[in-house]
Specification:
Shape of chain A: globular
Largest sheet of chain A: 8 strands, mixed
Order of helices and strands of chain A: EHEHHHEEHEHEHEHHEHHH
Number of strands of chain B: 15
Strand order of the largest sheet of chain B: 5-7-9-11-14-15
Number of strands of chain A: 8
Oligomer: heterodimer
Structural class of chain A: alpha/beta
Strand order of the largest sheet of chain A: 3-4-2-5-1-6-7-8
Shape of chain B: elongated
Distance between the termini of chain A: 53 Å
Largest sheet of chain B: 6 strands, mixed
Radius of gyration of chain A: 19 Å
Order of helices and strands of chain B: EEHEHEHEEEEEEEEEEEHH
Structural class of chain B: alpha/beta
Largest interface: A-B, 13 and 12 residues
Helix content of chain B: 10-25%
Number of helices of chain B: 5
Strand content of chain B: 35-45%
Chain lengths: 265, 226
């Protein structure tokens, strides 16, 4: 049974698109048939992050308006046989798409794919409503900032009104040293406020930005913290139980010696 | 025929009580009341007399009540303080019941959501920052109160707000409000907010409520008994 998962957050810039791209890539790495859907019409960039910008001919609005068939608009990924992207339109706006059209497209995609991952635009207006319309499950992305947690809370409230499974949480851009110093909300604090299941935590890593700029989702890289985190999230979606990553910095030989001799850091 | 068949006047310390018979017609009653009150010669020097009207088992419509009030008011030195009746309409009774009822709601009130109820609210769950709970009566939160709680929002200053964990953005009771301090602060456990004599919202241990609002337990008991 295919599953449509919407990635949403309310607030902009918390990493919805990055999460969509990496989750899709991770699932594809596990031999799943995945279709990524960009619903951020007018401000598309999932294609850029995936490095598929130059291949776009038709887009989601063309499909919705019947200008082309769904299959024609799908772009096959450079690296995988079963990772596809349905790009958003850059010239229309969010009102050109309707929830009904989304439901129809997702129903068609479900015949072909195991997972349909929908990248939701920021905000709670038409674009959000379109993105959520055909989804079975929702993943809410937040960062350890108050403003982003507030918006995530609002979105979770809205998602509760939809007929979806309870939303799951991904906490993105975690900076360990700031959490330790109490300058950032801790993971426990965030979960206590939002009171939904945690699906994964992703460290703030320069590599993520570097990889997106190259059009190569970080999940490809074998052992950066962020790529392991995304692959762990994908494994949890598939039902595996994977322990949360620890963010302890690796200790150097010198600190270890100091500890051994009982000296304070 | 006895003169004061339907109207009896009783003098009390606070003024006069008019006991009106509830078995005759309203017209009869007005007629006799008019006669009775006109008979008494009232000393011009006397101060105003407050009158309480006891209707017994008679129900008066609004316009009938107005008629009664104007009649009494026309007489010198009489002021209607109160009209009491043993009966109320079903509608009124339902409203009473609703206002004294406790509603139990189990959910997390998230940012942007407003829960508004008539009567007392027992919320099993959290109120998150940006969320609001409003009740015409008291508010009890079994969970974390991190948003806005507005008790007695139709003007009841006696209403209280209690929470297992009190860390609100704002507390409002009737028309008063208090906000959280501008510096970063921790919440407190098992506390309640109420309005004190200086018309300010005070947050204190919830055990204190027994002294400040003793009527609360009686009220609750009556709710439980229907």
């Amino acid at each position: 049974m295919a599953e449509a998962i919407v990635i949403t957050s309310g607030k902009g810039g918390v990493g919805k698109t990055t999460t969509t791209a990496n989750l899709g890539t991770s699932l594809a790495l596990m031999d799943k048939k995945v279709c990524l859907m960009d619903t951020d019409i007018g401000l598309r960039n999932l294609d850029v992050v995936m490095g598929l910008e130059n291949r776009i001919i038709f887009d989601i609005i063309d499909v919705a308006k019947g200008k082309c068939k769904l299959k024609q608009a799908l772009i096959k990924d450079k690296r995988f046989d079963y990772l596809y992207l349905l790009p958003a339109a850059q010239t229309s706006d969010k009102n050109d798409l309707s929830p009904e059209a989304m439901i129809e497209m997702i129903a068609e995609l479900k015949k072909e794919f195991d997972f349909i991952i929908i990248d939701c635009p920021a905000g709670i207006e038409q674009g959000y409503k379109n993105a959520v319309a055909g989804a079975d499950q929702a993943i809410v992305v937040t960062t350890p900032e108050k403003s982003s947690v507030r918006d995530a809370d609002r979105i979770i409230g809205l998602l509760e009104q939809e007929e979806l499974e309870p939303a799951k949480l991904v906490i993105n851009r975690i900076r360990n040293h700031m959490m330790k110093n109490g300058d950032m909300l801790t993971i426990d604090e965030i979960i206590q406020i939002l009171s939904i299941d945690l699906l994964g935590i992703v460290a703030d890593d320069d590599e993520v930005i570097k990889a997106s700029n190259h059009g190569e989702p970080i999940a490809f890289q074998p052992n950066t913290k962020a790529s392991i985190a995304y692959r762990n999230i994908a494994r949890r979606i598939l039902g595996e139980s994977v322990p949360l990553q620890s963010f302890e910095e690796e200790q150097g030989m010198f600190t270890k010696m100091k500890k051994f001799f009982g000296m304070r850091n | 025929m006895a003169k004061n068949q339907y109207v009896t006047i009783k003098g009390t310390r606070d003024g006069l009580t008019l006991n009106l018979d509830d078995t005759c017609s309203f017209e009869q009653l007005l007629h006799e009341l008019d006669k009775t009150l006109s008979q008494d010669d009232i000393d011009v020097e006397q101060s105003m007399i407050t009158v309480k009207v006891q209707l017994g088992n008679r129900y008066l419509h609004n316009d009938q009540e107005e008629q009664l009030r104007t009649l009494i008011r026309q007489k010198n030195k009489l002021v209607v303080q109160d009209i009491e009746s043993n009966v109320i309409t079903k509608e009124q009774a339902m409203r009473w019941k609703e206002e004294s009822d406790m509603r139990i709601i189990t959910k997390t009130v998230r940012s942007g959501q407003v829960v508004e109820i008539t009567g007392d609210l027992l919320l099993i769950g959290d109120v998150n920052p940006g969320g609001t709970v409003k009740a015409t009566g008291n508010i009890f939160v079994m969970g974390n109160l991190r948003g806005i709680a507005h008790a007695g929002y139709k003007g009841n200053q006696d209403a209280v707000i209690m929470a297992s964990y009190m860390h609100p953005v704002q507390l409002r009771i009737a028309t008063l409000y208090s906000r959280s301090p501008d510096y970063e602060s921790d919440g407190v456990y098992m506390e309640c907010g109420y309005v004190d004599q200086s018309e300010k919202i005070i947050i204190d241990r919830l055990q204190i409520v027994a002294k400040k609002r003793p009527e609360l337990s009686g009220f609750e008991r009556s709710v439980l008994n229907g």
